[in-house]
Structure formats: structure tokens, C-alpha cells
Write a structure and sequence with these properties.
64% of the residues lie in helices and 0% in strands. It has helices at residues 3-13, 18-24, 29-37, 44-54, 58-63, 66-87.
């Protein structure tokens, strides 16, 4: 399972310390550290809160190695998204966000 690695990767990518991240979600720093180290695992409600916080699907959060996917798609992902949005390939309604992942 990639949960602990993904939590650490996404937290660092967001620029948050364990303390800052934990404070925003009312979770102690040591609990966050234990999740990231794979010592303990959160309940389902907390997992859903984490996925929502980072804007990723629960499935990807739990089963995809996001660090390696990000590295593989980093170069082409931004140009694909930019081109698609410029051409209107992903029409958006006001207040919605597009989430996609290149594989």
C-alpha cells in the first residue's frame, strides 16, 4: 500500500510541516508522523478527509505511488493540460476543478 508514502509526498508538496498539516485537520503531529512512517493507519473517515484535502481520489491515494507517477508525467502533464484547456477539451462549470492523472 502506498498510503504512507503518498501522505508524506503530498504533505511536502503542499509545503506543510507535519505540525501545520495536523493542525489544519485536528490531528497531532506525532499521529501524522506515525501515519507517514507506516506505524499506524487512520480510519476510513480520516482517509477520506486526507484525500479531499489533497484533491485526489481515495483510490489513487491508497494504491498509486504518486511520487513516481508525478515524475513520469511532470514534463508532459502541464503541456497536455494547458493545450486541452486552451482548446476547450475539458469544459468546466464555474467552481469545478479538473483532476486527472497521466499513466
Amino acid at each position: 500500500m502506498s498510503f504512507s508514502k503518498n501522505l508524506k509526498y503530498l504533505r511536502k508538496k503542499s509545503g506543510k510541516t507535519q505540525d501545520e498539516f495536523g493542525s489544519e485537520l485536528n490531528i497531532g503531529r506525532t499521529t501524522v508522523a506515525n501515519y507517514e512512517a507506516g506505524i499506524s493507519e487512520p480510519n476510513m473517515e480520516t482517509l477520506v478527509r486526507f484525500a479531499h484535502y489533497f484533491g485526489v481520489s481515495l483510490d489513487d491515494f491508497m494504491s498509486t505511488n504518486m511520487d513516481s507517477v508525478q515524475a513520469e508525467s511532470k514534463a508532459i502533464g502541464s503541456s497536455i493540460e494547458k493545450d486541452a484547456l486552451l482548446r476547450g477539451a475539458f469544459p468546466q462549470k464555474a467552481g469545478t476543478t479538473i483532476y486527472y492523472m497521466c499513466r
